[in-house]
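Re: [ENG-882] Designed sequences occasionally contain unexpected residues at chain ends

Forwarding the minimal case from QA. Structure tokens:
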């Protein structure tokens, strides 16, 4: 039965947005991770090429798309899959929200999520009527756990789980007989030590050996390819989990539109545009991070992904207000659970011009 859904929390920051908008040079909105750079031309052309879509698309995806995804996993994620182990989804948020339901979870079942988490994991548990437990240490995962969510690299705090941490999580999930899913949508956006070596995939043989039983990875094109408006993502891994999802999705009519399937094939096959986009974010990050530190915030984790996870050691809403007075809108840590009352999240998804404006304001405030 459908559990109670929380209010959509973004309304709570409306007064701060209002305050930030009063800045004479306008608001710098760093509260949301929605891409601002254009969708690459080759992907747009691919979409346009595929507009004759008279027939229904397949749920499992075209051969072209499935092969493109399999090749991407081999090339970028050190993971060998067959085409029956991958399934395209309509963005990854729908899969995050519906996976517990599609796996048949319900009352009395537990969905584990990280202690600091993207809110949709808990929404998914509520949609299925299951309970949610927030716990990072596998030893704390209860016996009734049926699904474990990991999110590495993480939103909001940019934490990356290394191979050992992923392996320990998989071992514990298997002990519990639970499915374990890593939401990896920031996988291509590693910084520092993760800039050259890819952030580890949960399906990497160093994590699962040669057996993906109970293990799935989610990946999205939204961020790496500035494709959030298209809605293109994938879930991959344990064949029996994928088979179950295919069956539910066929009956429910959940399929990726045909033109998008072609555009996704092109996006997954092209590493060049991803490197270019990563470079844009690297430049923005290298400007904003020291400006925040200079202003007096401490930036924690933030090893990968699109966010800087910062704290002034005070209540997050106070920091949010102070930043709003500089015309900068951040996201409050409490949106991501009780474990982060003192943090704010600042997104790198703003234009260079707006990032420069934020940097100038932070520096002037510090000097003043
Ligand atoms: C951790 C995480 N998972 C999933 C999503 C959903 O992405 P999309 O539905 O665009 O693939 C987001 C979007 O911000 C996210 O941060």
């Amino acid at each position: 039965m459908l559990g109670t859904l929380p209010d959509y929390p973004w309304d709570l920051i409306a007064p701060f947005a209002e305050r930030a908008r009063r800045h004479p040079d306008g608001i710098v909105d760093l509260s949301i991770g929605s891409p601002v750079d254009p969708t690459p031309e080759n992907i747009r052309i691919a979409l346009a090429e595929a507009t004759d879509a008279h027939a229904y698309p397949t749920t499992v995806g075209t051969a072209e798309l499935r092969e493109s995804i399999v090749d991407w996993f081999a090339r970028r994620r050190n993971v060998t899959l067959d085409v029956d182990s991958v399934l395209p989804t309509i963005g990854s948020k729908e899969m995050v929200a519906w996976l517990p339901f599609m796996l048949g979870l319900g009352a009395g079942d537990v969905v584990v999520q990280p202690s600091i988490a993207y809110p949709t994991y808990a929404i998914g548990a509520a949609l299925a009527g299951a309970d949610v437990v927030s716990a990072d240490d596998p030893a704390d995962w209860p016996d009734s756990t049926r699904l474990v969510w990991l999110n590495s690299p993480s939103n909001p705090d940019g934490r990356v789980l290394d191979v050992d941490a992923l392996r320990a999580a998989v071992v514990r999930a298997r002990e519990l007989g639970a499915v374990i899913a890593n939401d990896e949508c920031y996988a291509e956006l590693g910084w520092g030590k993760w800039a050259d070596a890819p952030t580890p995939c949960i399906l990497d043989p160093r994590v699962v050996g040669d057996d993906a039983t109970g293990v799935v990875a989610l990946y999205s094109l939204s961020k790496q390819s500035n494709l959030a408006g298209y809605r293109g993502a994938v879930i991959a891994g344990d064949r029996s989990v994928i088979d179950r999802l295919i069956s539910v999705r066929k009956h429910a009519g959940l399929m990726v539109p045909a033109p998008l399937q072609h555009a996704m094939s092109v996006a997954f096959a092209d590493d060049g545009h991803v490197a270019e986009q990563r470079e844009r974010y690297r430049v923005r990050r290298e400007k904003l991070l020291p400006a925040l530190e200079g202003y007096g915030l401490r930036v924690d984790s933030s090893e990968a992904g699109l966010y800087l996870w910062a704290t002034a050691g005070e209540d997050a809403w106070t920091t949010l207000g102070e930043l709003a007075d500089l015309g900068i809108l951040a996201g409050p840590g409490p949106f991501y659970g009780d474990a982060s009352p003192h943090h704010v999240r600042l997104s790198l998804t703003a234009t260079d011009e707006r990032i420069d404006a934020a940097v100038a304001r932070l520096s002037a405030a510090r000097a003043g």
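QA comment: On inspection the terminal residues look reasonable. The chain has two domains: 9-38+273-367, 41-270. Proposing we downgrade this to a documentation issue.
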